[in-house]
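Record copied across here:
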Amino acid sequence: MSIFFAAGSPTTELSDAEARAGLFEALDKLGVRRRVIAIPPDFTRFHSRAGRFTEWTWERYGGALAAVLPALGTHKPVSEEERSVMFGATPGHLFRAHDWRNDVVTLGEVPGDFVNEVSEGKVDYAWPAQVNKILREGGHDLILSIGQVVPHEVVGMAGGSKNIFVGTGGSLGIHRSHFLGAVYGMERMMGRVDTPVRRVLNCASERFAKDLPIVYVLTVIGKNEAGALVLRGLYVGDDTECFGLAAGLSLEVNFLMLQREIRKAVVFLDPHEFKSTWLGNKSIYRTRMALADDAELIVLAPGVHEFGEDAAIDTLIRRYGYCGTPAALEAVKSDPELAANLSAAAHLIHGSSEGRFSIRYGPGRLTREEIEGVGYQYGDLSGMMKKYDPAMLKDGYNTVDGEEVFFISNPGLGLWAYEGRFANSH
């Protein structure tokens, strides 16, 4: 188990040339590889820089790069336009679309008693370690998992083995991992490296994936003083220590701990990145620990036109709405369809304020009836965009019409929490 490259700090700004050189230095240490598959995230993680690293991987290996499998999880396949924007000159014929419902194999099963133990008795089911079948059957001598480490609502910190077991995982594994995180408690998960879901993923890696030649390329992205996104860290390795280094830096770079609670927050969802509440509800997940009781969260969502990217999940969200933990757990007991789609049940929990603060959604392409039908307040997008112009607001506190507003330009880039609430959420 090794770390092949490690560089980063809260003030580091790695240039493209430095990042490319660091990647090549790490790949050189691996020796000759003849059949490589790259597993980057999809367009919803455009800012991860994974597209550039995938393009550089193609430059490095040429014809030895046999395939690129974006780690879609439950997301939609990468479009031709998205592929061109994110992955540059990487040849289009290399790309494969992950089918999370049908295109997987099970490497093994994490026992139910282990899951029960790490969840503190919240769940007791076994967890299947599922991956896209090409990982086991493709004959690759290098599986290059490329992705960003950042606070995450399901696993605590994204990246590492999540990219494999969730990003290329199967329906049962995705459903059960999401539900595990939700019932354990999102506030107990986010911004923490050691969580029940991470322990399950690490167990699966150790027990069932040792024969897979996986090497992780992990990025940490943050904003500099000028507001530009920069590469703060790059870590390449094949062990949990590599992930730990990236996660430690991400907590310094991407986690803003506030000394007082937010009374009113405005979150902008870039229409190129956020097209569903399945993704756009990062506006809720990532701010909930910073929001005061009875606070107001305003979501500017010009690109949002659906709830779930998966048709079955979209139907379930519309059926139950963002109903919160007690109602979602009761619905799982009574509705076999929801019980068979536990990630949807988890999402109903994640997207609820649990009645603690209000959520006003201004969608680009959903109606008032649709928004109110899932339990949110409806906001007129054009009016809200005029009042809270994302081009005029800065990240953090602003004054709008004499009122203090906390603005977040992209909720996918970090985590915000009030220090008192975070301390009490263990």
About this structure: The radius of gyration is 21 Å. The chain has a mean pLDDT of 96.
